[in-house]
Structure formats: structure tokens, C-alpha cells
Specification:
Helices cover about 75% and strands about 0% of the residues. With about 170 residues, it is mainly α.
């Protein structure tokens, strides 16, 4: 708890300094950030491979981010309503919830590998819940496509047989 209090005091006193950093041109601050990140990646194992991997994953992540934001902007434009702020908010909330569950797993003595497998299983199960209702429903697909002025592909409303076994609605008992 003492670390949190000290961290709070340091952050609150450093706000003007952090705000002043925002006035530095991007062409100056970006190389500084890159060098600091490279030094940090190198010092973990004293291996340049880690720096190369940092660059590869950083560049690929940035390219995916640009592609996703471009696609989301186009969907917003075609649908005529804002969507990206909600997606960014849920992404941030998901990151915080994931960090919290990771801390709880470590506190419970779970290894990172077991935590990863459990997280994958939970995500897979949670992704199957709306599959039958939203994603694979032809009526929802068609209404969304009309909303953004697209014609749905013919296969969008179908599903593989293995998905059907997981997504069957329970039969009403008599």
C-alpha cells in the first residue's frame, strides 16, 4: 500500500512534466521511445533477438491497429453512427479485467501456462454463446448488411456441422 501512495504522489507531482512531453514534436520523441524500448528489450536476456522480436511485433501490431481503425472508420461512415468509441472502451475494460484475473491467478499459485490455457478455454466458450444468436443468424446478418449497405455473402448464414453441435438451442421439455 505504501508503494501505491508513493506512486500517486510522484504521478501527481509529475503531471506538468508529462504534459510538457506532449509538446515535443513526434519526430523527436518517437526515436527516444524506440531507443528506450530497445534498451529494455535487450537488457532482459542480453540478446539482440529480443530487440528484433520487439520491432517485428511492434510493427505488425501497429499495422493491424491501422487496418482495424481504417475498417472501423469505414463502417462508421457507412452506418452513420459512432461505433469506435465503444470498441475502444471495451478493449480497455477487457485489458483491465484480464490483468485483474492474471493477478488473481498468480496469487492463487497458477502457472502462467495453465492461466493461458484457462483463458483460451473461457474465451472459446464465451465466443460460442452469441454465435447461434448473432453471428450465424441469417436475419441478423441481413439486417446488419442492409444497415451498412452491403450484400451478405451466400455462406455467411451457414455454419459448419461441428459448430451446430455446440450451438443447438435446448429443446423444450413437455
Amino acid at each position: 500500500y505504501l508503494g501505491n501512495v508513493v506512486g500517486l504522489v510522484i504521478v501527481l507531482t509529475m503531471v506538468p512534466v508529462f504534459a510538457a512531453i506532449l509538446r515535443v514534436p513526434f519526430s523527436i520523441i518517437a526515436p527516444i521511445i524506440l531507443v528506450v524500448c530497445a534498451i529494455g528489450a535487450y537488457t532482459v536476456h542480453n540478446n539482440t533477438f529480443d530487440v528484433v522480436m520487439m520491432l517485428v511485433f511492434g510493427i505488425s501490431g501497429s499495422l493491424m491497429d491501422v487496418a482495424i481503425n481504417t475498417e472501423a472508420t469505414e463502417i462508421e461512415h457507412q452506418s452513420g453512427r459512432p461505433l469506435m468509441s465503444g470498441f475502444h472502451g471495451m478493449f480497455s475494460a477487457g485489458g483491465m479485467v484480464g490483468a485483474g484475473f492474471g493477478a488473481l491467478a498468480l496469487q492463487a499459485g497458477m502457472t502462467p501456462l495453465h492461466h493461458l490455457w484457462l483463458s483460451c478455454a473461457v474465451c472459446l466458450l464465451l465466443s460460442m454463446i452469441p454465435t447461434n444468436v448473432v453471428i450465424l443468424s441469417p436475419s441478423h446478418t441481413a439486417s446488419f448488411a442492409r444497415a451498412i449497405s452491403l450484400t451478405p455473402p451466400a455462406t455467411l448464414g451457414t455454419r459448419p456441422s461441428w459448430v451446430s453441435s455446440f450451438c443447438q438451442k435446448p429443446k423444450a421439455s413437455s
